[in-house]
Amino acid sequence: MTQIIPAIMSGGAGTRLWPLARVANPKQLHALMGERTMLRETLERFSSAPDVFQPSMIVCAEGHETIVREQLADMDEPPRLILEPMGRNTAACAAVVAYWVAAEAAPDSLVLLAPADHLVSSAAAFADAVRRAIPAARDGRLVSLGVRPTHPETGYGYIRLGEPIGDVFEAAQFVEKPDRATAERYLAHGGYLWNGGYFLFRADRMIAEMERHAPEIAARAREALERGAPTAAGGLLLNAEAFAAAPSDSVDYAVMEKTDQIAVAPLDAGWSDVGSWASVWDASAKDEDGNVLIGDALAIGSSDCLIRSDSRLIAAVGVKDLVIVAAGDAVLVVPRGLTQDVKKIVNRLADLKRHELL
Amino acid sequence: MTQIIPAIMSGGAGTRLWPLARVANPKQLHALMGERTMLRETLERFSSAPDVFQPSMIVCAEGHETIVREQLADMDEPPRLILEPMGRNTAACAAVVAYWVAAEAAPDSLVLLAPADHLVSSAAAFADAVRRAIPAARDGRLVSLGVRPTHPETGYGYIRLGEPIGDVFEAAQFVEKPDRATAERYLAHGGYLWNGGYFLFRADRMIAEMERHAPEIAARAREALERGAPTAAGGLLLNAEAFAAAPSDSVDYAVMEKTDQIAVAPLDAGWSDVGSWASVWDASAKDEDGNVLIGDALAIGSSDCLIRSDSRLIAAVGVKDLVIVAAGDAVLVVPRGLTQDVKKIVNRLADLKRHELL
To answer: Which of A272, A289, A323 is the last residue of a domain?
Structure first.
């Protein structure tokens, strides 16, 4: 069976998970649930299905090379690393990956572009979904994995499914983040999936569509790769001048929403982007009071809280629906319904030039 | 003018102010507001009125001698220390002080028994109130300073004022902690004062009333003093065997509510026992959002909170009426209306044998 090269995008910071996630130590490098870091969980998801996936490669920030390598140190064959000198969003990343795979493997190699910081509870169901998408990808389609919604989420984009193409579907429509009522209609309808950020494609087909719909990104990414240089530790560092010149855009906007070569494969594998502390609470096992207590946490007369400490005791009494996180040199307290506002703290700290806290 | 020996009772732990107040480092040894510790503020209150007060003496726990002496190290003449081998409440403390002053100074010396951990915003008004109570004390009365209520507090005992005796009053009635409606009537009435825990008396008169109404406490306290021994640092350590045998009772119950020799002097000096984090918030200056922020604290979209950190940043977003305190190896989060429940945390930690956190 055709095997796929997973390209793990580990470039984000996940600042809505401050104070755990920091610029120098982002979300995907932490164990959010369980023992392993999200990056290692992601790698494991692929290596657990060797009939579908070849060894992974990772694209991460230049500044994270050391900490990423530390997390991979015990692996027999650590993944190849491509290092971005700065973040240019996912389109440039996808282009770099496509050019690199076309040159290093083969132009028609299959690539799965995958975020490093998502939670997927069933690796087997994930591999099944990808397996079903392979024929369409082989045929030249750019296949987006669409997550089967579990609730009327207003924070994600949706894809409306069109006609079936084998085991996958045409994409009839991309929809921006909907309002609550619309999200509820989508959920009831059943034919709307969340845009999960996973893309399966043949390297040469992504290159062709990128060159057609986002030629500037394609050209700069290709140049950044060609002018790239090896790092002392064995990574491939993209050329900063060229990569900086690549327009910053998402692969969704730059390519997927423009090409007529898209397909959608439904994914129903217990997915969460754990993009906020509220979604961490959602995805976690709770005690009888609805609390998620991680580390040295004591809750008395409290319910439906997430309390997480990396060292010192956090003691809460008489609180409800609250998120309390102590990590490193900072403590966060925010109502569970307002965890999107954690960004306000990060922005304020940046304004205050408290860089040691970012 | 007759001068008074202030006897500062520094024996409590103030566990409702956990995690700042700890067994080994109790409330009165912290700077709760401003720069100086409560003990130093209390000493300053007396030394600032040398026409009324002689140098103070301090009664504290044996285990606190070192840390108390550290706080007094920069004083020209540090106060004499009497050390309790264990806490026996205020009656035994009052008896020890009375016997000690009668022997070391003179039987008719005036003593002001004063808690170390109260806030008094006007030292001048405090000295005035004491000054007005001196004639009654000289005449043999045990004079309680009664705090003029500022709100319908249900957490304190009240004293109903009787007939005037010079500048002070007879005590017509002691009232246990009232319910809310009763407290509101007392406030409207005006003739009910809070029992503030300050007592002015002649040493020989306290001894006489203690021997009459609480003879066992008097005998054990006297024995503990007579069998006391000097510490290496110069304190007087009460005899543990004798002091342990003294019944544990408050001076209010043991003597003041039984004797007919009581008088009450109104005190209107900006008093607070700062007995909970809510009362710390009450007594503190607030920003325009009603927040009290002490140390490295950041509040966004938050109001009427007390946020206090001794080191790490505490960042709160979107919270209201919340107390967040980080001190040492612990973080407390509790609604401002439930700060009495902090005791539940301390009790639970004791049950869990987490002695390092107490």
So the answer is: A272
